[in-house]
Design a protein that fits this description.
Number of domains: 1
Oligomer: single chain
Shape: globular
CATH class: Alpha Beta
CATH topology: Rossmann fold
Number of helices: 7
CATH architecture: 3-Layer(aba) Sandwich
């Protein structure tokens, strides 16, 4: 276990039953954080429960009341949540003419509503405390059209813009909001440099760049992070 800026801090990770989510949990444990690993009740999380400092909890991010209740319980039992990694997501490979209302709602309920539910708790809790970090795992599909992925791409674009706006609101309060949309953010493609960059995104605590500035990694061309600062005022 490394002694880093994440050591001893309490992190909440959604979508921990999937490849990216599990990789994020292991990263945080390696960096010395305490972790609450969440996913749907039907998802196998037992393997993560054996990691040192990991607490496993069922969570459906599309349920705003459930998200709020989990934050309440965690903070009452374990202390303030310092870091949130919004990883939970669902894929949809359906052409628009074959996309039903139910499919559209299913995708947005997790990929967009889920990020909103987490971000709202971050705003209420970390914003009041004046510290913390929130990272949304998005996708470069948020800005690059994909065939038969309209619902998925639109939901990721919504999550990306929401996180940018949240960053502008919370940056002056000392809460850092980032977006990670690298194509190789998790699983077998998550190489060590990518691993460390994600850790830096989660260390947070202070806003560090100009308002609205989006940092792009030239290798792969994917949107990696948004650093919040003072909000703009419009007439």
């Amino acid at each position: 276990m490394r002694d880093s800026g994440l050591s001893g801090r309490l992190a909440l990770v959604t979508g921990a039953g999937g490849g990216i989510g599990a990789a994020v949990v292991r990263l945080l444990v390696e960096e010395g954080a305490r972790v609450v690993a969440t996913d749907l009740p039907s998802t196998a999380l037992s393997g993560l429960a054996f990691l040192n400092g990991v607490r496993v909890e069922p969570l459906d991010v599309s349920d705003g009341a459930a998200v709020e209740a989990l934050f309440e319980r965690i903070e009452a039992e374990d202390g303030p949540v310092d870091l949130v990694a919004s990883v939970a997501g669902v894929l949809s490979n359906v052409t628009v003419d074959q996309t039903s209302d139910a499919e559209w709602r299913r995708v947005f309920a997790v990929n967009a509503d889920g990020v909103f539910h987490l971000g709202r708790e971050v705003a209420r809790r970390m914003g009041e405390r004046g510290k913390g970090a929130f990272v949304t795992v998005s996708s470069n599909a948020a800005g690059v059209p994909r065939h038969a992925m309209a619902a998925y791409a639109a939901s990721k674009a919504a999550a990306t813009m929401f996180t940018r706006c949240l960053g502008l609101e919370l940056g002056p309060k000392g809460v850092r909001c980032n977006i990670d949309a690298d194509r190789h953010v998790g699983g077998r493609g998550w190489r060590r440099p990518r691993h460390r960059r994600f850790a830096r995104d989660l260390q947070g605590g202070h806003s560090t760049a100009e308002a609205g500035d989006a940092r792009r990694h030239r290798r792969g061309g994917s949107l990696s992070a948004v650093r919040p600062c003072r909000p703009h005022h419009h007439d």
